[in-house]
Write a structure and sequence with these properties.
This protein is an alpha+beta fold. Helix content is 19%, strand content 37%. Strand 4 and strand 5 form a beta hairpin. The relative contact order is 0.16.
């Protein structure tokens, strides 16, 4: 693939599979974080100086237990606030599973950029304080979650947003017990992630979440992560997903009683 270089190879470990029985979204970010480090190092740039300010991710095809995959990375936009792209492929089938456009600051990347041939960011309204925001997480950033320079790692953020999903879904009846008995799960197909600050081990972290859009089988959640001491927003996530029938591996319509409760919370 012209302009792309391979930056990661791996397989899906059993402990990296979530309740929806596929590769947990946070572990995609763990691999993309490593791919970024390698790409910057090979580009002659100190990766320790880089910080991610935004990530647009589209999940296109599932990875499941024991699948093998590779990541290829390219420069999409050069300069002082560069954008790089990751493409994650199922190495067995060759299918493109996931794409991520990652915007960086703190480093400058010269060179000839590659034309991006993937999904572009679609502007989606972010609810304000008028929305019904549900308390969705209260915890502390742990030492083992730090990246190579001592900040909370990308998967450390995304694991917490995944936990927040459980609380906002439970608020309209899609509880863990309901999903277990109904054999359904949430399958994410888009992340619009923006970083406003950085958390470090020992920092208190709070998340509040709301429903921003509701479709037949689809739902978009918005999450705000704050510093638990200051209330400053650290990161925001707009997340689109579908209710997935775990046996058919296809989207399934959200039940009418759950839909009615979700509409009451809709921003």
């Amino acid at each position: 693939m012209n302009g792309y270089s391979e930056t990661f190879r791996g397989d899906v470990a059993t402990w990296e599979v979530d309740a929806t029985e596929h590769f947990t979204v946070a572990y995609y970010y763990e691999k993309f974080e490593a791919a970024t480090w390698r790409f910057l190092r090979q580009s002659g740039v100190d990766p320790a100086a880089a910080r991610t300010t935004g990530a647009l991710t589209h999940y296109k095809s599932e990875l499941r237990n024991r699948d093998i995959y590779r990541v290829e990375t390219a420069l999409i936009e050069a300069g002082d606030k560069p954008t790089i792209a990751h493409k994650l492929f199922n190495d067995d089938s060759g299918d493109l599973c996931t794409t991520m456009l990652q915007t960086l600051t703190g480093v400058s990347l010269p060179g000839e950029p590659v034309a991006w041939d993937g999904d572009l960011r679609e502007d989606r309204p972010i609810p304000g304080d008028e929305a019904t925001w549900v308390p969705a997480l209260r915890n502390v950033a742990r030492v083992e979650e730090a990246d190579w320079v001592g900040n909370l790692s990308l998967p450390g953020y995304v694991h917490r947003f995944s936990t927040a999903n459980s609380f906002i879904m439970s608020a309209f009846g899609m509880t863990p017990d309901y999903m277990t008995k109904s054999r359904v799960g949430l399958s994410t197909f888009e992340f619009q992630l923006v970083f406003h600050g950085q958390a470090k081990p020992g920092d208190l972290i709070d998340i509040e979440s709301c429903i921003a859009q509701l479709g037949g089988s689809s739902v978009r959640f918005c999450h705000r992560m704050r510093d638990g001491d200051t209330g400053v927003v650290l990161a925001t996530l707009s997340q689109f997903g579908v209710q997935l029938d775990l046996d058919a591996r296809r989207p399934s319509r959200i039940a009418d009683d759950l839909r009615e409760r979700a509409e009451a919370l809709l921003a």
